[in-house]
Design goal:
Two copies of one chain form a homodimer. Chain A is α/β, with parallel strands linked by helices and 418 residues long. Chain A contains 14 helices and 13 strands. Chain A has a six-stranded mixed beta sheet with strand order 4-5-13-10-11-12, with helices on both faces. A four-stranded parallel beta sheet of chain A has the order 8-7-6-9, with helices on both faces. The N and C termini of chain A lie far apart (62 Å). Chains A and B meet through α2, α4, α5, β8 and α6 of A and α2, α4, α5, β8 and α6 of B. Chains A, B: Keywords: Lyase, Pyridoxal phosphate.
Chain lengths: 418, 418
């Protein structure tokens, strides 16, 4: 495992120590990245050791197969990572990274698995998070596994599954009549109030928000390592990524940089496509307008609940990566997203989350225009299990619970019960 | 991969050919098991090749890591198998096999993945299944991936997720005002009617019911291989298994027999515990009464929807295995199941399905009585993701959708939104 050398600000490159828990850069409030001694890592971290280590372990190591490039602490694990890379049945170059196989059914397990691991390492006892839904569920699960108290704030109209998992895992759940931005404000206000009231340090919440602490990115970077390893240590031509907070995209870019420094991969980095829903598309709008950062997206509304992030904290980093890579930030309507869910379910056997279906909608659109060829090697992230969005997808399809239909009525088909 | 020698009846040991699709034993209607030439397999199938093969493959092979003991055909795969084996945070001997990480969120993916693989191999074009819910969802997904039409029959009151996935994957869905036993009758009646109407052979449905064709057991047996490999090629002291149709338990027992013949494992086989819900406990009742088979369980009712199987086709085989192994068949009430869901969520970070929680309820009960020690090595199956049962678990908890609560009301906790 890797010893952390320091935490570096993504914006002003100021370094701080990782000996104690850190949030944002103390100088400029930029996001902090975990930095290792890469000269030392080049000696100790070998890519051929990864598969050998996994083979020597009777159980799946999950994302901890990359322990040589992760902090040297005892993991809090629920089996996250090393998810299937499914080859499309229709497009020879398309690979779907099925993040729905993670604990709590989404890619959020990677970031929060690592962030909670570090929180336990630091001895933190209260973690708080504003969330569009899935980060809250993942925090609740990992906090329960670690014996830490979770305080989660979600919009009132998240998928029902997000609410239920929060309650079941024993988190302190607050449903907010607003968006993730309102939730973030409330977390900040609560922490401020606790400090002003001289609450004992051990009882003050630690804010584990997207990009406001260094370790969620560090967990998410394993998606970058994984996709490269799963393609035989080669880059694809493009990565299609549903982008709400964008931590995964930022984490993958960090992984690519590290892997190049370690000599694990060479060649041209993939074009990074950040995909959003038209009902909340701050990054796509800024990309279209050639701006370096996004503006707060008014009246955010889409059934791709995880993309209802009106102003991502890492917007400037995301836009920079997308542009540097030669990719694009695009948005698709809820109708296009739903059509893509049904298309991939019926023809690939994969039930996408609405977020994942922004990426397939984008893929199909770019294939149709000829911007992309079916043979171009593309890794497309389904960030969550479609099953976690049963209520919202059914609502978008105008599907009713069959219990409300007359008895013995045929549903969706041809056959009449005898 | 292994060449199938023949299919053998579990009851009368009659052999039939696997050259064409088979259902039940033509002599006695017993279930058919896949048999290989074990002398040949002893030469070709080596356990040390498994991890090496997995390590040499850039992507996860899932259950096909055991291809040397599976039929020699091209897999229809969605990434099933090689699920996490989670070490309990509280009991040193307890390992939870997290089958919720499978495609479609349950262990059914293994059996139907293999059965659909064989169906495609045979050129079958219509597959029908009666299901308590999850087998229907898995068939729908794998049939979609294979380009085969699925006809699924489920009780009207299955978890909503089962209904939605059937529709989304494009299956022909019939919701039945009854139980899986009614669904089974309807599938049989439809096939009979098709035959009587001289429907072209390619359009007659093939009945892919539990234990009425040989390959669902064959897929499920990978759970047995996996648990032994994940314990370092050793048997645990006991296996705790939620039992509806019981295919997984039967499949694991077959795996143990094969592994012993191959010299992959030695020693005493685990005690097999078959766990049911008190509201539908035909196997536990027959076990208690010392009977060789179960009776139809009247008025089956439990929120562990997958256990609503009033008369499993393989009941005699299940009871025989449980007794041979020195295990037990036990049943727990819905209240005990719900309490165990909440306990394991809050203290282990694992959101169990109601079926899985019959196994944890049993584990805790046997620990409490001293029948089991916390150091006894136990592998306990969570057969499905708790997230797939959001509606039923919430109903059991009397949880309402937060959208129906007043605005800005604190939910489940302490914090009042500002």
């Amino acid at each position: 495992m890797a010893v952390i050398a320091s935490l570096e600000c993504a914006r002003c490159h100021h370094h701080v120590s990782a000996e104690t828990p850190q949030t944002l850069c103390p100088l400029c409030a930029g996001s902090l990245y975990v930095r290792y001694d890469m000269d030392k890592l080049r000696q100790t971290a070998k890519r051929e050791d990864i598969a050998a280590r996994a083979a020597a372990s009777p159980t799946s190591l999950g994302m901890w197969r990359y322990c040589s490039v992760l902090p040297d602490v005892t993991p809090v694990t629920l089996g996250e990572g090393w998810t299937p890379m499914l080859h499309s049945k229709r497009y020879p170059g398309l690979y779907i990274k099925e993040e729905g196989a993670n604990p709590t059914g989404t890619f959020k397990a990677r970031g929060l698995g690592l962030a909670v691991t570090m929180a336990r390492h630091y001895g933190l006892q209260h973690l708080a998070v504003p969330s569009a839904g899935n980060a809250a569920g993942a925090l609740a699960a990992y906090a329960a596994a670690a014996g830490i108290k979770a305080h989660i704030f979600m919009p009132q109209d998240v998928p029902f599954a997000n609410y239920v998992e929060g309650i079941v895992y024993g988190a302190n759940v607050t449903m907010v009549d607003g968006l993730i931005s309102d939730c973030a404000r409330m977390v900040a206000e609560n922490i401020k109030a606790q400090r002003e009231a001289n609450t004992p340090t051990s009882e003050v919440w630690f804010d584990i928000s997207t990009l406001k602490e260094p370790f969620r990115v560090e967990g998410k970077k394993t998606m970058g390592y994984e996709l490269v390893e799963q393609l035989g240590w080669q880059y694809p031509d493009a990565v299609f990524y549903p982008t709400g907070g964008g931590v995964g995209l930022i984490g993958m870019w960090k992984a690519f940089e590290e892997m190049e420094q370690l000599g694990w991969v060479t060649g041209k980095r993939p074009k990074m496509y950040a995909l959003q829903a038209s009902g909340c598309a701050p990054v796509a709008k800024a990309f279209e307008e050639g701006k370096p950062a996004s503006e707060f997206f008014q009246n955010a509304a889409t059934f791709a609940a995880g993309l209802r992030v009106p102003k991502p904290y890492g917007d400037a980093i995301i836009l920079d990566i997308v542009r540097q890579s030669g990719g694009k930030a695009l948005a698709f309507s809820d109708e296009e997203i739903l059509a893509s869910i049904l298309d991939y379910a019926k023809h690939e056997g994969i039930f996408l989350s609405p977020e994942g279906a922004t990426a397939t909608a984008a893929y199909d659109a770019l294939i149709a225009t000829g911007d992309l060829k079916p043979t171009d090697k593309v890794v497309l992230f389904n960030t969550g299990a479609g099953l976690k969005y049963t209520d919202m997808t059914a609502e978008a399809m105008h599907l009713k619970r069959p219990g409300t239909l007359p008895k013995s009525m045929p549903v969706g088909g041809i056959i009449t019960p005898q």
